Amino acid sequence: MVYLSSVLFALVLGASAFFFARSIGRVRRNITLGRKVKLDTSLATMMRVALGQSKMVVRPVPAVLHLCVYLGFLVINIEVIEIVIDGLLGTHRVLSMLGGLYDVITAAAEVFFVLVMAATVTFLIRRNVIKVKRFQSREMSKWPRLDANIILWTEIVLITALVVMNAADQALQRMGHAHYPETGAFPITAHLVPLFMGMDAGTLVILERAAWWFHIVGILLFLNYIPYSKHFHIMMAFPNTYFTPKRAKGHFPVNERVKQEVTLMLDPSQPAPEDTGEPATFGVKDVFDLSRKSLMDAYTCTECGRCTSQCPANLTGKALSPRKVMMDTRDRMESVGRVKDANKGQWVDDGKTLHDLISREELWACTSCNACVEACPVNINPLDIILQMRQYLVMEQSQAPEALMVMFSNIENNGAPWPIPATDRFNWANAQ
Ligand code: SF4
Ligand code: SF4
């Protein structure tokens, strides 16, 4: 029986690992649709921002709630590791060999049951009852709203399974059941044991095993859901912050092709530029033109809306939402991936681009203030995408707001943004 259970568990675990690895392969393939760029790395940034949650603290209430869930996730995962070992070896509470340390782990996990449950219920209330403004934007309807609720309800259900499992286990321990030796410390679920003491040992074993299987199968299903969800940030936040660019905030990277052409215009004696292998277009038309870092950013977005809530364009009623820019980028990347999947890995033009999802009105509403980059808790840069998409509009499509077109034309004709010929520049001085 134990052997059969271990084989079944190994099969479930193997299938879950297979499908999860396939999903990660899909994400990796989609990120590599973008341009390869030289990436900066910073372990310190990753430790500070992803592990240390340093950018969360500006909003204390969600910061504390998120910290409860984050630490709970780490501590409760020790129990998940134990469940996996038990499942494979047919043991029961194998980590009890740690003695006193096991008591600390089980007690800490139980405290986090309560904290995570409280935080999760509060998150649900904030989203669905209080309706916190940053979760009500137009991009947060339908799937993003459902996704957030699925994640929160799943966490509640999974923790409930652990509570039932621990309480039934303790009832069996107190009965002196041969397979449930006394171990662990359970300061929370100990209070629920009287509810279970009226049951016979057979029923309790079924209940404990059912909760055990429900919890671990639920975890494995959830693991496979994560790469399709905003919850993917729990994995992506680490590489994304590790690859945070080191350039100064607000620094706009120079487009080398433009620089070379301008240099040549100003000084024709300069040698003609070498072919740098830069893309044939200026700016970003579609996800293929974005850097892989921008695409990684899109998969890392938690849809928290901190960027949008700080965006002056959004706050003054403009169409722009930096969160939507990231969500649209991810959606486009996924749809390009699906086209490739349907065509044996080959790209077949579907007649759409990223500009079909992000409008000119949104792009030109950006003031390039950098507030979204500053606010993002996982170092995402929506501004990079916006600026490069604008560059495409101007340099490839000659599309810019009227005021900018006039300025461009003045620069081209007069060498200055004003409608005055260069020869008349000093007329103001002569008029004195
Ligand atoms: S840089 Fe643009 S998108 Fe970001 S906050 Fe400022 S205006 Fe909004
Ligand atoms: S870009 Fe950053 S701040 Fe904006 S929604 Fe995504 S994770 Fe939140």
Attached small molecules: iron/sulfur cluster
The fraction of residues in strands falls at: under 5%
The fold-level CATH name of the largest domain is: Fumarate Reductase Cytochrome B subunit
Distance between the termini: 103 Å
Shape label: elongated
Radius of gyration based on Cα positions: 28 Å
The helix tally amounts to 18
| Mean pLDDT across residues | 92
Biggest sheet layout: none
* Topology as a string of helices (H) and strands (E): HHHHHHHHHHHHHHHHHH
Poorly predicted parts: none
Beta strands, count: 0
CATH architecture of the largest domain: Up-down Bundle
Tell me the name of the CATH class of the largest domain: Mainly Alpha
Tell me the structural class: mainly alpha
Q: What count of domains describes the coordinates?
A: 2
Textual characterization of the structure:
The protein is mainly α. α1 crosses α3. The chain has 2 domains: 241 residues, Fumarate Reductase Cytochrome B subunit; 138 residues, Fumarate Reductase Iron-sulfur Protein, Chain B, domain 2 (Orthogonal Bundle), CATH 1.10.1060. It is built from 18 helices and no strands. Helices cover 61% and strands 0% of the residues. It binds iron/sulfur cluster (2 copies).
Kindly list the characteristics that best describe this protein.
432 residues; elongated; Fumarate Reductase Iron-sulfur Protein, Chain B, domain 2; binds iron/sulfur cluster; Fumarate Reductase Cytochrome B subunit; 61% helix; single chain; mainly alpha; 2 domains
